[in-house]
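Review the following:
>
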Amino acid sequence: MKEQLEAARAFVSGRAPERPTVGVVLGSGLGAFVDALDAVVRIPYSDIPHMPVAQVPGHEGNLCLGSSDGVAVACLQGRVHLYEGYSPERVVFGVRLLTALGCRAVLLTNAAGGIRPRFVPGDLMLITDHINMSGYNPLVGPNDGAGPRFPDLSHAYDIELCDAARTAAKEVGVELREGVYAAMLGPSYETPAEVRMLGAVGADAVGMSTVPEVIALRHRGVRVGAISCITNLAAGIAKTTLDHAEVEQTARQSREAFVRLLARWIEQADAAVRS
């Protein structure tokens, strides 16, 4: 894996306008953020050595390098998932590449189902903690030496980056909810009984991504923040049939607020890692 990451890093670095300090992972329907970047260089995943290719609608599959209000960023426009048949090691290859490129903080986004009745589709939720219900961990196997054998996840979601997100939301006039994200394997949506169980153990939203990436990043000592776009209410709470096309549509409708918030958050994340 070290050799594969180095090959991918060398390929991308040769096309990067400058070394990025902040990485961004754009989830289902949220990839349009790259349109707000300056001097964007788009590299299809299929061109990058050893990079797994996204197959799910709403995940464009590009590594985008550019500038957001003067901050050099590297964006994964879409991700791969465990439910596609990729191993945990392959699922986190993209975020490990972000660290190899020089990103010292990574901001992750996803589309999630709201478990709490107070949520409405289109809400943005700052993830303050997670519950890994997927049954997988990208650190299983020999330790690669990039971090400790038993990494501490007491503050998986960086306290300073969470405070920065709250501040950014106030500054750009976006309401930002908060909660715990539960990761399930998928690809089927949860049953009503599973949603009730998740709510009982403290989850506020549920999805099929993000947690393996957070674990891999924290293992490498990279600071992490994450936001969910609540694109639907979960089974048993929703009054309609769950559908991925509606997930994408809701994410697109939240684009304006999402772009404003993320752009400001990137500025503050950059300031945090430089301080």
In short: The radius of gyration is 17 Å. The longest helix spans residues 255-274. The CA atoms of residues 9 and 101 lie 6 Å apart.
